[in-house]
Amino acid sequence: MKISRTTLAIALSGTLALASSAIQATPISGGSLQSLLDGITLGGTSSIDVNADQYGPDAVWTQTASGISTARILFEIAGYKDVNSFGIYDARDPSRRLEIFSGPNGPGSVSLVLDLGSNDKGAITFSSTILPIGTDTASFTTDMFGFYLETPNNIWYSEDHRNADGKDHMVTFAGNNSDQISVPGFFGLPTGYNPWTDKEFILAWEDLPASSSDDDYDDFVVLVSNVMSVPEPGTLAIAGAGLLAFGFGMRLRRRS
Ligand SMILES: [Ca+2]
Ligand SMILES: [Ca+2]
Ligand SMILES: [Ca+2]
Known about the structure:
The protein starts with a helix and ends with a helix. It has a seven-stranded antiparallel beta sheet, with no helix packed on it. Strands 4-3-8-9 form a four-stranded antiparallel beta sheet, with no helix packed on it. A two-stranded antiparallel sheet has the order 1-15. The chain has two domains: 1-22 and 232-256, no CATH class; 29-231, no CATH class. The chain is 18% helix and 32% strand. The protein has helices at residues 5-20, 32-39, 233-255; strands spanning 60-63, 68-75, 85-90, 97-101, 110-118, 124-130, 135-140, 145-150, 155-157, 170-174, 180-182, 193-195, 200-205, 220-225, 227-230. A hairpin with a 6-residue loop joins β3 and β4 (97-101). Bound molecules: calcium ion (3 copies). One calcium ion (CA) binds at residues 206, 208, 214, 216, 219.
């Protein structure tokens, strides 16, 4: 039998729709996050709309070639602001974690995150130095990581499927090289406004579970540089399964 181009196109678009369904906007309640973003933007209006301009996929990340990233806390509007900690986890083994900021760190805290390379067993060592003091290191099985926020009751992951409530707790905004933003903290940035580049992402977290959350995503807001998102392994698996199923269907039909 002949498979028409249309059939193939429909099957492929179905597969792609499945694969990209993870990149839907997460509704953000209230105007707080938008106001905070507008407030650090030169001119007072961000070109980013926090509901319409979310960046995705934002579940799994890796560092850009430089292997040197910074993380800067912008805002923490939360009852847990003195206890929440933030870091990265091994995308294959979430029990491996590197803390980047601890509870007492707040807006203006800056951390330098380095990929120290792999050892002879292939484990990747990451280090995080809160400037000017305090270094943590952790050994990961891969250079792909997620971000986490640990609260007194939960650990929330950038991969939604790892969250106890299955919900998206981290929304992401990418710089567009046009907005100028003023970022608190020292080291490396002149004071005042600087371009928000497309290598810099703002990660905005909701720290309460779905049952008690206000969905304002202003509980922990951090700017990270020199990272890039990679497709979630699960997403690729779904796309791959779709293609396999399609191929299998074709083979069955050919046989009959
Ligand atoms: Ca804090
Ligand atoms: Ca997300
Ligand atoms: Ca909240």
